[in-house]
Amino acid sequence: MIHAAAGSAHRFIQSSVSSDAPLTLFCDFDGPIVDVSERYYQTYRLGLAEIKSVYQRQGIAPRLNELTKDRFWQMKQERTPDMEIAMRSGLRGHQIEQFLGRVKQIVNQPKLLNQDQIQPGVKWALALLHSQGVRLVLVTLRQQNQAAQILREHELEPLFSQIWGTQDEDAAYLNQSEHKTRLLQTAIGHCAPAAAWMVGDTEADILAGQASSIPTIALTCGIRSRTYLQKFQPTRIHADLLSAAHFLTDSAQHPAQTVA
User: Fold this and answer.
1) Is the distance from CB of 252 to CB of 23 less than 8 angstroms?
2) 242 FRET partner, CA 20 to 30 A, in 66, 121, 128, 179?
3) Cα(251)–Cα(33) distance, rounded to whole angstroms?
């Protein structure tokens, strides 16, 4: 079942990991399921090259410093503002505004979207959760048709009972926490889970879960570092979705285990 964001709903959830009630896992898309690092880096490189070309045609040779992928991704994980990334790359003044505008324009182009890859271990993680009776609900700021298509291509769509996305192609890149909170609360209102967790890789996911009174799992395989995520006090932090899946299923089999 595929849904777009519409309206809002709020519901307080009994947060438990036990066999007494079926567990619902609200799962983010970019980060937990899909690795977007190459797309974001290639978008950065392309934007930088285009700005350089524009100024060269005007007889100006800007002195640019293209960041390595490792350095670029480290800055993204540390939540370094895009303006600072542009400045560290040698852009100045109006060049920065042009660069940021261009990056926003091209980041969702098909040739760049094709850079996205399924995270290692995701198929095992989702299959494990599904086999243990966990209801999987996708809650993403990605356009819903994009998310559903990628899941379909990798034969993962049938594992999700619902897919909640947006119609705004810029929402995922902007990653605003209030948008994620509204979307999650809408999904909660329709699912009415007795027990639930929210898993994601950004502060938007943690804040959305906290605002909806459900425990949260932050993953460090995405666009935020462990150090940055700790500031928002998620219930747990795991390296990836497979690690989180093992925790949830192990906890379900041993209800006496406390949530750390």
Assistant:
1) yes
2) 179
3) 22
